[in-house]
């Protein structure tokens, strides 16, 4: 192109006094930013291709590299920002929809950071997690309304729909095989097993090699029904019907053709090379009663032995939708807020559609209690859970457990460069190229995931102990343990918490 | 300053209970004397008693004790009460003027049974009908508060030290087979008598020393079943939880204790097959009714009494026995004051309920 | 005894093992000073291409052919580690020819030979190639 409209976002700074021309940056950059000039014996960089994934920076043995924001900018404008202008240039050139990866990066309010947690003093002692039991075990599933008794008077223990037992209230959220790599799935599966929790196949089906991790897998049935067959349903510990996800409410999944290899094609039961775009709705769910029909079809197909999860995106009337789902026979409802990640989504939908999970959770939990059906379902929340404090706050607002995905990928090495849709993930996570997938060693990856969740578990135990709580069920829905700061009356009302000082 | 019911007030306290297994009825002096040495556990901002077997002449009728702030509240409440119940007797509860007890509301009691046609039209059984009726009055008539609603039992409470409250209500004139007492140490000034302990619904009465960390988790669950935690006190929540588990779900008291003071998973995992499954089932199905935080409760009910500590035993409680008498108190001195020589005295383990009932065949 | 083992499944062909080895055996404390502008002479070498690669270093064989081949008696096995005595080596390169793994290489001074000695002859401690591998492809263990 003779006129270059796009201004490179980043500049590659190489300290010539440190560079030893070992070429690891050149070898490890799938975007071909770095190259070696044999005549001068030095390295060169083409910043137009850099996506700021930091692979080269992390590997450079002499710390010679830095990736910085390109100081070459357009005139400062708080309204017509450089990014906004750049997006218009791209669309003028290509005529296409802008596609982005990972979650909404825009500066909308973060409610997690406006809620504070309690601690016990004097009137109620705090509990020391180092020396006293501190329990994070949780069960997800429908609970019976009434106790039944056997003829001999003992409680009928079979009067309990199927449950998922978790040692820690954190699960790995849905990320499809196709959007992420085989090695990433293996890391998640092994970590889930070791931690005593669950991972989710996402809408790409379950690779045959991973059936051995089935006791810890939640199999997803999404609108494209990729990879859904009888053995798949029977393999999972639970079945999740994906109605929507937080990153792109109202539309279906999108896997670019470049990422559909032989293996992905076989696992998903689709042709190679063409984009796999899931339909927006499930074409057999046009109303709530249709959902009920699908829920029970899946239960019939699996002999009522597995809990059925329904996953929705957090949208404006999420409370009413959740109420409908609770009555449809679902055992667990998963709600994904607008910060949820994705392999690929239209930028405008990702950045402008959906609501924060904190508000959605508070509204759904309260509505289900008002309707007296909160005990009929468990709630899992997702969409940008960043740390253990977010988990504690989510449980205090009413969640039974949380799903993490972005945080899990970051633990595996993701640097949130947000170019997953190109399929050239330098960390071996969001790619199908074998030479790149190799970069994620599941021995290392699963260990890092176990470390992350264990660390969060210990922090959760510390915070619980500080509040005088020693079992996570006593934190669930315990809104008096939260106070808001810098929130309006209306926000406090929706969250159902008091302001700090009250 | 916000009144009781608008703000949650944590408190430390004293509890005491005396029970006669043979059903022998004795006056309130014993329990009043037992709470005197625990004076410093209270700060004069709340005291109360529950007594069982005190209305033999109206043994089969519900005895409602009500506080009124105004004449209008009394008129409104009586009209509603008489619409649902056939009231056989209505009178002021006799009290003794005392300088330590001030700002008294009007205190009345009524004896009656629900009208049959009311029971039929709502389809509830008698106890469910009465429970709902009481909750409705308390949440919808401002200035009127029903603080006792059982048969052949009554709660007596006020703002003051328990020994003064006992004398105020002339408890020496009553005779019952079971007495529980409570002295309160709230960390705020409550405005209102209804906040004192015991809290009562039907014939369940609860006195409690402690502060529940799981309060809001418990409250937001129990309120799904029609209960309204208007007082924002732990004791109210505990009483509703016991009513729900014992009366509505049909769990025995021991099973109820297994839910609210469930053992740790590490202990459950060590149990053998059937017991482990049973405990896991109860903890899972009623997970939101697990009570964490220090507590020491004395639950009274027709024909018996249950004492229970939280599973970490963060509040003191001792049990003493002599002959047919059983004593429970926050401190040993409270028991020794009224019964210097005991057959047995022990401190129950955290999470282990102590349940005493009338001997077989005893009628009260 | 512990040896260096390489798993080709995880080798990325990034060559960081080579650079770490060269640095460890340079006698310098600063990597830039040791390696900038210089041709490196590591004792481990990455072989292969984009599809599959593998780093090769001395196997410290149970019955080393190089020891038998050395005409000057400069190569010996001590505590399981095959070592080269630089003072005795005459630079005949017989060991380079006989090593079935190609693990012995000419040394920069053009005279003696060099090969992996499990970092027992430098200040590295744990073998530098193991420490420097970013993907767990090189391990130091007993099998």
Number of strands of chain A: 21
CATH homologous superfamily of the domain at 11-59 and 157-357 in chain B? Aminohydrolase, N-terminal nucleophile (Ntn) domain
- Radius of gyration of chain A (CA) equals 24 Å
Flag low-confidence runs of chain B: none
Oligomer: heterotrimer
Number of helices of chain B: 11
Main sheet of chain A? 8 strands, parallel
What is shown here, in short?
The complex is a heterotrimer of chains A (about 500), B (about 375) and C (about 140). Chain B is α+β, with helices and mostly antiparallel strands. Helix content of chain B is about 30%, strand content about 30%.
How would you describe this protein?
Chain A has about 500 residues and is α/β, with parallel strands linked by helices. Chain A contains 15 helices and 21 strands. Chain A has an 8-stranded parallel β-sheet with strand order 9-19-18-16-15-12-11-10. In chain A, helix 11 crosses helix 14 (about 440-465). Chain A starts with 9 loop residues before the first strand and ends with a strand. Chain B has a domain at about 10-60 and about 155-355: Glutamine Phosphoribosylpyrophosphate, subunit 1, domain 1 (4-Layer Sandwich). The radius of gyration of chain B is 19 Å and the shape is globular. In chain B, strands 7-2-8-1-14-13-15 form a 7-stranded antiparallel β-sheet, covered by helices on one side. Chain B has a 5-stranded antiparallel β-sheet with strand order 9-10-11-12-16, covered by helices on one side. A 4-stranded antiparallel β-sheet of chain B has the order 4-5-3-6. Chain B contains 11 helices and 16 strands. Chain C has helices at about 15-25, 30-35, 65-70, 95-100, 130, and strands spanning about 5, 45-50, 55, 75-80, 80-85, 105, 115, 140. Chain C has 5 helices and 8 strands. The interface of A and B includes residues 135 and 373 of A.
